[in-house]
């Protein structure tokens, strides 16, 4: 029977950090584990604030390392993005144009995985439909859902979560008091307070957050007054003289906590509700300040909300961030709407994230590239909210187009092609009087489509971009459209046209003073055309120039692609150790940026280098690892004769040494490695040692006859043809054009 085995990380990051102690629930945890052992779909239901998410996360943390994925769906507003959220939580990167659902089905096939869907109640139909298909087609999959209502599927086992018992509620109250450096004894007033709050953890924690200002007795008195109002005809759900429902208890506890806030605290509480998920201090100061709350006061007021458990703090790779629980956020949103200020705050929120994206795009070409990648990762829920606002509000389309286009580095450099294409396509479908914004979205859309291997739509949008750009004399858009059209020619094996277009684009960039990672990638792609046409020295010269510019500016993404070409040149010149050093540098940065295309290309070339070094078994294993990744990129090696030559030479050498049966066995072994495992193996982190013997013999054999040939590619049929074509390096143009 499948079930929890030992704590471990989720596939895409660690389990949610428990910043506070987990109180009680041992019986519930055991019962939930038992339910998961007997049913493939278990849904934890209960009132808001009862601890569904915390219990589900704790239960999932007991499963086999790498077998769990937790999906936070509260920030997702568009039902069509549910699939993207699930794929992201499972750490799946797919560069192709297929839907995320296809990726999920392919990557999860035959793998025992626990999928945790948290906060799905506003997306029930979409979640239910996706869950039903995944469970139907993936017999090894289990789903643990946590929400206020069931998914309503056949075979769903409901796990209603009751509030804490009195003793556990008191323990929670006193524990949270200790965390504030306060003392709250287990006395009659504390017990009565917990009884009145019906053991709802969120309500208890909110009450404990008030202990700095009020004693337990004062808290109880104020709560009594609030409940008395509620049970004397305050609303249609009230029963005079009877206890309120748990839903009303929670709302009462939140409303009571809200009433105890100062006017500034209530104002900030309402305004913070515009954030989709987490936020940082700078964002809060900009978005929420003004009209009664000076920016310099936001930190102090936020600190008070933290002390009262209205807001929680998290430490992330992008720095300290803050969040509000969904129930608390929803209460604040109601107040914001009632004040008639929701539209203004959403525009301020949009303005902040538009500015952030603009700054990140500029700073991508700097030593802060890794920091930018982490920052955008943390801000994705808010960036999505800003995009959604722009693309659904009248007269905002041009800002949505600009925002979607400005995030090109996120879509392309950080492995989010599928999501980026969806936003870009939505944006260019809208009418806009600001043509430059739409032109930017068009060339970025063309770039994304090329990388997905979707060449026909790519050519169409790039033609439209260039024609409109020439009509309005937008020199920048003309340059980018021409550049990306050259990129398309490169992956289509039309080297002469690719070289012409790329040279022209680079000249245009120089004329308008454009220098950034895109421009450097254009030069790397030009180097690829030179290498494929037999001029390896010129390709090396171009890439060394790119490398130097990258070193001067601290750029790492485009630099990785330049290193790829230089590594191939080093291998061709008989220096496999140097080639491996360059490829390790390239692979490390590509993996950090989640650039799947650069990863798989580097693995392919590392396989060839490894075969040269005399370890054909390890080379075949790396080819198997790359073969597993290619379906998530697109057509393996782009279906290009140029790019395929190193792969074929490596395979021929490995088969010749190992024999067909052993070669296929090694390929299958590599195919069992996941993405992280493949990268670790390639970087030598798996304890693999390579034989020194036969390196010189194999190396010399490969080097003979390996001079660049000036003619175009022929699909290799004979071994001697393959050897001759090795001189055409497979370089970064493939990456950018993939």
UniProtKB/TrEMBL annotation:
Residue ranges of domain ORC1/DEAH AAA+ ATPase in the record: 38-142
A Pfam match: AAA_22
InterPro entries attached to this UniProt entry: AAA_22, HTH_77, P-loop_NTPase, TPR-like_helical_dom_sf
Superkingdom, natural source: Bacteria
Record-annotated Winged helix-turn-helix domain positions: 265-337
Chain positions covered by the region annotation Disordered: 685-738
Biased composition (Basic and acidic residues): 692-702
Protein name (record): Regulator
Lineage, uppermost ranks: Bacteria, Bacillati, Actinomycetota, Actinomycetes, Kitasatosporales
């Amino acid at each position: 029977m499948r079930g929890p085995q030992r704590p471990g990380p989720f596939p895409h990051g660690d389990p949610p950090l428990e910043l506070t102690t987990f109180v009680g629930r041992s019986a519930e945890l055991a019962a939930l584990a038992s339910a998961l052992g007997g049913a493939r779909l278990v849904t934890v239901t209960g009132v808001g604030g009862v601890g569904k998410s915390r219990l589900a996360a704790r239960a999932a943390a007991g499963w086999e390392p790498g077998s769990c994925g937790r999906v936070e769906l509260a920030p997702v507003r568009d039902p069509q993005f549910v699939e993207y959220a699930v794929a992201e939580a499972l750490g799946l990167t797919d560069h192709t144009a297929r839907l995320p659902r296809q990726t999920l089905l392919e990557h999860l096939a035959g793998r025992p995985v626990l999928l945790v869907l948290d906060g799905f109640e506003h997306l029930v139909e979409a979640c239910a439909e996706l869950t039903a298909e995944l469970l139907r087609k993936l017999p090894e999959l289990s789903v643990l859902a946590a929400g206020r209502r069931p998914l309503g599927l056949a075979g769903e086992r409901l796990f209603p979560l009751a509030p804490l018992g009195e003793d556990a509620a008191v323990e929670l109250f006193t524990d949270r008091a200790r965390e504030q450096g306060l003392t709250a004894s287990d006395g009659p007033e504390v017990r009565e307070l917990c009884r009145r709050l019906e053991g709802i953890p969120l309500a208890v924690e909110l009450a404990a957050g008030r202990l700095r200002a009020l004693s337990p007795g004062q808290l109880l008195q104020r709560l009594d007054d609030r409940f008395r109002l509620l049970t004397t005809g305050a609303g249609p759900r009230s029963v005079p003289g009877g206890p309120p429902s748990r839903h009303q208890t929670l709302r009462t506890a939140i409303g009571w906590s809200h009433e105890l806030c100062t006017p500034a605290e209530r104002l900030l509480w309402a305004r913070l509700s515009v954030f989709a998920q987490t936020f940082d201090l700078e964002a809060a100061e900009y978005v929420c300040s003004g009209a009664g709350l000076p920016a310099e006061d936001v930190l102090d007021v936020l600190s008070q909300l933290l002390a009262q458990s209205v807001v929680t703090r998290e430490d992330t790779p992008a720095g300290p961030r803050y969040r509000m629980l969904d129930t608390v956020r929803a209460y604040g949103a109601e107040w914001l709407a009632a004040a008639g200020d929701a539209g203004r705050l959403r525009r301020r929120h949009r303005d902040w994230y538009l500015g952030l994206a603009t700054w990140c795009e500029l700073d991508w070409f700097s030593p802060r590239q890794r920091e930018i990648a982490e920052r955008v990762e943390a801000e994705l829920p808010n960036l999505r909210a800003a995009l959604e606002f722009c693309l659904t509000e009248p007269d905002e389309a041009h800002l949505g187009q600009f925002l979607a286009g400005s995030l090109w580095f996120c879509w392309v450099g950080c492995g989010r092609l599928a999501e980026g294409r969806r936003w870009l396509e939505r944006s260019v479908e809208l009418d806009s009087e600001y043509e430059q914004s739409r032109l930017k979205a068009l060339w970025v859309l063309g770039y994304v489509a090329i990388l997905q291997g979707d060449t026909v739509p790519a050519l169409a949008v790039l033609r439209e971009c260039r024609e409109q750009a020439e009509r309005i004399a937008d020199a920048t858009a003309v340059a980018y459209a021409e550049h990306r059209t050259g990129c398309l020619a490169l992956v289509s094996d039309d080297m002469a046209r690719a070289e012409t277009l790329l040279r022209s684009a680079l000249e245009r960039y120089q004329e308008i003073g454009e220098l950034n990672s895109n421009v450097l990638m254009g030069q790397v792609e030009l180097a690829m055309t030179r290498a494929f046409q037999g001029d390896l020295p010129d390709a090396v010269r171009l890439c060394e120039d790119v490398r130097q510019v990258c070193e001067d500016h601290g750029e790492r993404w485009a630099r990785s692609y330049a290193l790829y070409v230089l590594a191939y040149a080093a291998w061709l010149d008989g220096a496999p150790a140097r080639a491996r050093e360059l490829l390790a540098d390239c692979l490390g940065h590509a993996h950090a940026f989640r650039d799947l295309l650069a990863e798989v290309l580097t693995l392919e070339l590392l396989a060839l280098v490894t075969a040269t070094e005399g370890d054909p078994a390890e080379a075949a294993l790396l080819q198997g690892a790359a073969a597993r990744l290619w379906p998530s990129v697109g057509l393996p090696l782009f279906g290009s004769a140029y790019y395929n030559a190193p792969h074929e030479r490596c395979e021929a050498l490995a088969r010749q040494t190992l024999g067909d049966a052993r070669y296929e066995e090694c390929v299958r072994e590599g195919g069992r490695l996941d993405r992280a495992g493949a990268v670790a193996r390639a970087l030598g982190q798996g304890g693999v040692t390579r034989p020194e013997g036969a390196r010189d013999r194999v190396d010399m054999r490969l080097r003979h006859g390996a001079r660049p040939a000036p003619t175009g590619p022929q699909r290799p049929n004979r071994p001697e043809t393959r050897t001759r074509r090795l001189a055409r390096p497979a370089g970064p143009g493939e990456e950018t054009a993939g």
